[in-house]
Amino acid sequence: MGNINWAEVKLKVSSFVRNNQDEVLGALGKILQVIIIIVLCLVVIRFGTVAIKRFFNKQRQSKYRFDEKRLDTLSTLCVSIIKYVLYFIALIMILDNVFGISPTTIITAAGVGGLAVGFGAQSLVKDVITGFFILLEDQFSVGDIITVNDMSGTVEEMGLRITKIRHYTGDLHIIPNGEITKVTNHTRGNKAAIVDVSVAYEENLDKVINVLKKVSEAAAKDIASIVEGPMVQGVINLGYSGVVIRLFTKTVAGEQWAVERELRKRVKEAFDREGIEIPYNKVTIVPPRGETK
After folding, report:
1. What parts of the chain have a pLDDT lower than 50?
2. Which domain holds residue 103?
3. pTM above the 0.70 mark?
């Protein structure tokens, strides 16, 4: 490939610009208009987002008590609405000012092609309507732990079209609102913490239950997230290798798993102190008859 003659290229470009000066200036003007509209749109979105966040932060400091998660959800949704509206306005301005397509023409074209567009936009409309009713009915809020379509996690963001759920492994599930048909909210109301303890059949059950009651009383005083209990419900099963006794506790939402872990730890420590055996699989080797160890 030969060397490029930049002088010749420059000459051709200059000649093209001189011969098509009006077209070149017109194209540059349109490009500049598009850039200005996009920049203005992004600036307004930025300022609008800041204003919305400041407004909801003031509501948090208000003398009236508002639900924190509800405020986070409304803040996210308002930002989402601002973005969609401004993107639409920017698109209309670009089509009108740059390409000369008036809003009336767009509406007319939309009417003619409405049927075709309608089929394509069905899922979008469904997502938006479902998102609106999720917010209106307060099914869940930002920060809630929920299960949707067999996917569980903490709600990170709610928008008009999608909901983002962060799984405990760190995976982010992005779910269109229209696909949310069944929701299990693990955060609303008090939750049950259930601990089943197995002890050997040889143990004195009255002694075991008394030890568990002492553990429960101490836990009720020490663990702030416990709302009610723990209560020793008694023997719930006669298992293959041991007797199963249940502890039942009500906790603050989201803390039930931590309470269960702490109760198991305390029960194990108490059983060790009292010499109570927790059954486990053992292997007993019986030597053949006539042999000695």
Report:
1. 1
2. 6-112
3. no
Tokens encoding 120: 């394509």
**pLDDT (tens digit, 9 = 90+) per residue, 15-27?**
665 666 666 666 7
Residue with tokens 């990170």: 156
The pLDDT of residue 217 is 92
Instruction: Report pLDDT digits (tens) over 166-193.
Output: 998 889 999 998 888 889 888 888 889 9
Name the residue among 114, 178, 187 with its Cα closest to residue 149: 178
Output the six-digit token pair for 65.
Answer: 């008590």
Which residue spans within the chain are E strands per DSSP? 145-148, 151-158, 162-166, 172-176, 183-185, 191-199, 226-238, 243-251
- Segment (H or E) for 22: helix 21-60
As for how many domains the chain has, the answer is: 2
Domain containing 270 — which CATH number? 3.30.70.100
CATH number at residue 80: 1.10.287.1260
What is the DSSP annotation of 162-215?
A: EEEEE-TTS-EEEEEGGG---EEESSSS-EEEEEEEEE-TTS-HHHHHHHHHHH
Q: Which of 197, 196, 208 is nearest to 275 (CA)?
A: 208
Residue (of 226, 231, 228) closest to 209 by Cα position: 231
